[in-house]
Amino acid sequence: MSLPTVTVIGSLNTDLITRTTRLPKPGETLTSTSFSTGCGGKGANQAVACARLSRSMNNISSPSVNVRMVGAVGEDTFGKDLVTELESNGIDASGVRLAAREKTGTAVVIVEEDTGENRILINPGANYSVLPSTFSPSLFSASSLPSLIILQLEILVHTVVHVIHAAKEAGVPVLLNPAPAVGLPSEIYSGMEHLILNETEAQLLAEIGAQSLQEDGRLHDACEYFLTRGVRNVVITMGADGVYWKSKNHAVVGNTAMQHVTAAKVEKVVDTTAAGDTFVGAYAVGISSGMSVDEAVRWANQAAAKTVEKEGAQDAIPWRDEVPPPT
User: Fold this and answer.
1) Which is catalytic among the residues 15, 271, 277, 315?
2) In terms of DSSP H, where are the helices of the chain?
């Protein structure tokens, strides 16, 4: 029996990471405590999370899920390093195209050491060369259909919309992580299997406004906004307030019921950069391995908590050995 395949279509960036005790004020210059570079991009991070959480760190050649990355990098050192890093994690990087005359995408990341919170400024570079015309017809051929496609919004939105429509026609379930959040055509939600977003993204896309989602039933309203437009499973991550999810397939007294998973215990928050991407990757592996939505959410919650205890993006993502499966 062949293993399930998760195909991640999205961004690959080189992270330029500065750690500081506080952010400079306008016009102020500060000396940072450290600087480093690393492999990142939401697409690549989620692919690495899928790969690491589907295999042992001591045996990457025996996964429970095959992982493929589709995207683009520039013809530069950054691009080569990104592809090498994907392959070192056991990911099929044959779908990563070298974009001529393009620079690899970069992300300037500033991390406040006291809180672990980050601020990120992205230059898309080659990521914006990922167009509908660049996809190989084999992506949706009957003989090689993936079990699940993961998408984010660090590539062009019209490319994301194209893939969602093509996946629907081919009968391939889609997991969309709409980050960074931008307005999306409402019809793309119809038939979407999984939508994972944070509070800010839910506020924007569900047109809730700036108020907290935990006030006056707004979490329920946000979930209903997506469910009524055709999404089957809506997961909203709320950081220290845990995770809320709602599913058309989870009936309580004949109605869908909001479920809450409390935040996993964290010894010390060091860096939150890859927490959301780790959650997405773990959830995808869990679903592809036969977990229920509830089990996948709980396992992803634990994996994300492990990530924030370490510095960096992909370097901080745990392996399957480090995150016990839900009981």
Assistant:
1) 277
2) 42-52, 77-88, 157-170, 199-205, 218-227, 275-288, 293-307
